[in-house]
Amino acid sequence: MRRAGPTADTTLPSFIDAAAALAPLVQASAEESERSRRLPTPLVEAMARSGLFRLWIPRGIGGEESDPMTLVRVVEEISRADGAAGWCMAIAGGYGVFGGYLQKEAALEIYGSDPLVRAAGGLRPSGNAMVVDGGYRVTGRWPLGSGCQHSAWIVGGCRILDGDQPRLAADGTPVTRILHFPAAECEILDTWHSIGLRGTGSHDYAVADVFVPTNRSLSFREPPVEQGPLYALPTIAIFGTLLAAVPLGIARHAIDILVELAGTKLAARSRKLLREDVTMQANLGRAEALLRSGRAFLYGALEEAWQVVSEGSTLNLAQRATLWLASTHAANTAKEATELMFSAGGSASPYVSSGLERCVRDIHAAAQHLTVAPANYQMAGQAFLGSDMRSTPLLFTDNRSTNN
Fold it and tell me: The whole model's pTM is what?
């Protein structure tokens, strides 16, 4: 029987306040993050001490098990101060949900034993896990390990092998699982030389013939161990809502910068303050409309999904597609709003000192993620038409998705 979850009203304010309290340190650390291509250790430790990384960890092992909207709001708030820090918050905070899929002993070991624990890694099945007594021998290399340099545990998606042959599911597709490795067993490869989100440290990482016990693995196609409504949501889809919150925060920061600039910069043609320029005013109005509408759709879709699972029901195909659509639309409208602000800033925008150029770089990097990619518009349209979606595995990542 599914346990009732917390309501947003009881969990939201204190955690949003904690995120807002971190914002000055996040902003002050942004230049160092950009230079070193990772978050500074004092910032990571402050984020961990705030308890925000524990929002999606099950209550039974010491986490908060909050409603999903709370962490999305936290990520948005941190991203307003710095997109890279917001992205790392989304990954480390979001991966707490894995504690709801692991058996209790492993969940406690990984997510419950250290109140400051952080996990990172990629879910793409880029590794091979050969079945052996008690677990798996794993070899693989994964890209985009955001936050891997400051995490105690690193995950990797793997193909399961029986001998040298892939194990196949009943539908003929390869069986995959997500495995947890102690960070000390992973080699981090210096690959993150990027246009944006430089501070995320999203390097490649690799393991070679590492043993992983069976209980440190999970699959979204299996029922979660925890029965709270948070773990009844389609996991990849709610990760998308977290990652969409990063562009929302970046776009709001871009608008903040432009509004401040408009009070001091002279427009090139009129030589009046930029705030008096009608084109700038129109761009600002359009940017606000884009950002607010995308944001409202994201939170509305997430709140509707939360209501469904909180009542003990399961999201149908169209409802899951709506989560993907809302994440995609929020990220892409935020990107458009940011580009409008860059354009409105005129000759000031390209300067590093303006901050607008980093907003543009970061938001373009964030919007490349598959959970917010424009291809998801078509995927959602297929679902709304009642089309055969069996060739769209991203909508079928957990056992609840295959029943209706």
Answer: 0.95
